[in-house]
Write a structure and sequence with these properties.
Porin; disordered N terminus; 333 residues; mainly beta
């Protein structure tokens, strides 16, 4: 009898797995290759390099018995920059249960996030093109990069996200392990059109609870608005960040403006300017970092190519200037 019960259980398990396997699974991926050259006053960070990033992902969705929809998937990423390879392979994963207005997700590196921007630009943002910048696309807190639980609601022509990451000190643990570095994190993000055609709005705040009495609660906030007039799109954004210790708190404030022009369906040009102020223990750095970047993007059909050139005054809020040039190709399947 015991053997029959075990056999019956095994057959039932195989049947369930077979049902999942028969559902449609989508495979996607991309290859991104870059050439970057940079010149910094003093030559301390000048150079050139080829780099590559390649991704492959699997995704699936199914209707549940209760009428809700389940979506799930993961992405595997490999990075290489010069001779140094990224040791991390699992880039993102998600399980989302959704209805008409609400969805609940358990995920990592998935969903809307504060590292994105509504300010129009060609391909990469300036914080990615420029090496050594004081303050990049997102501050010290970016909760979507860590294992989290997330609630998304469709409101006001967009999506409102509430995210909680119980621990952002470790992202590579397996399904049965537990770690706790004390770095829990909360985020609130809205992005959408507010019901206005052509309008794009992004607003969000993120907070990481301090680990010890010597630390400060790390806080980040971003607010941006853009409008698409057809061939022309313009936008502005402001960001603030706080991190460090109570004795030496580091504060950043960055303002950004950008515009793009679609010459035709395949060719676009853009310009971006951003200015970053830094304070350490309440004392403002002697110079604000100022970045001007121009870009060109061209779609060849199966391959997209973009070129960006950036000039930086007072890199890293110091006295040195710099310039960077990047060519990137992207292929997707």
């Amino acid at each position: 009898m015991k053997n029959k019960l075990l056999l019956t259980t095994a057959i039932a398990g195989l049947t369930a797995i077979s049902g999942i396997a028969n559902a449609e699974t989508k495979v996607s991926g991309n290859l991104e290759q870059t050439f970057k050259a940079g010149s910094v006053d003093g030559g301390t960070a000048s150079g050139r390099a080829l780099g590559a990033e390649y991704n492959i992902g699997l995704s699936n969705s199914t209707e549940l018995n209760n009428g809700l929809k389940a979506s799930f998937g993961f992405n595997i990423e490999s990075n290489q920059n010069g001779a140094a390879a990224d040791t991390g392979m699992t880039d993102s994963h998600y399980l989302t249960i959704s209805g008409e207005m609400l969805s609940l997700s358990i995920a990592r590196d998935n969903g809307q996030n504060l590292s994105s921007t509504v300010v129009p630009h060609i391909s990469d943002q300036a914080g990615t093109v420029v090496d050594g910048s004081s303050f990049e696309n997102v501050g010290s807190v970016d909760g979507h990069n860590y294992d989290h639980v997330r609630l998304d609601a469709k409101v006001a022509g967009g999506t409102l996200t509430l995210r909680y990451a119980p621990d952002n000190g470790a992202t590579q643990i397996n399904a049965s392990e537990m770690t706790d570095t004390g770095k829990s994190q909360q985020e609130i993000i809205y992005s959408g059109s507010l019901g206005v055609d052509g309008l794009s709005v992004q607003a969000g705040i993120s907070k990481e609870d301090k680990v010890s009495s010597a630390d400060v609660d790390q806080k980040f906030q971003k607010y941006g608005i853009a409008y698409n007039f057809g061939q022309v799109a313009v936008g502005v954004q402001t960001m603030k960040d706080e991190s460090g210790t109570t004795a030496s708190k580091v504060e950043y404030k960055q303002d950004k403006v950008g515009a793009t022009y679609a010459i035709n369906d395949n060719l676009s040009v853009g310009i971006n300017y951003q200015e970053t102020e830094k304070k350490t223990a309440g004392v403002k750095s002697a110079a604000d970092e100022e970045t001007m970047m121009i870009g060109v993007g061209y779609n060849l059909g199966g391959i997209a190519i973009d070129i960006n050139y950036a000039e930086v005054d007072n890199l890293a809020n110091a006295t040195g200037d710099a310039e960077f040039f990047q060519i990137r190709t992207i292929q997707k399947f």
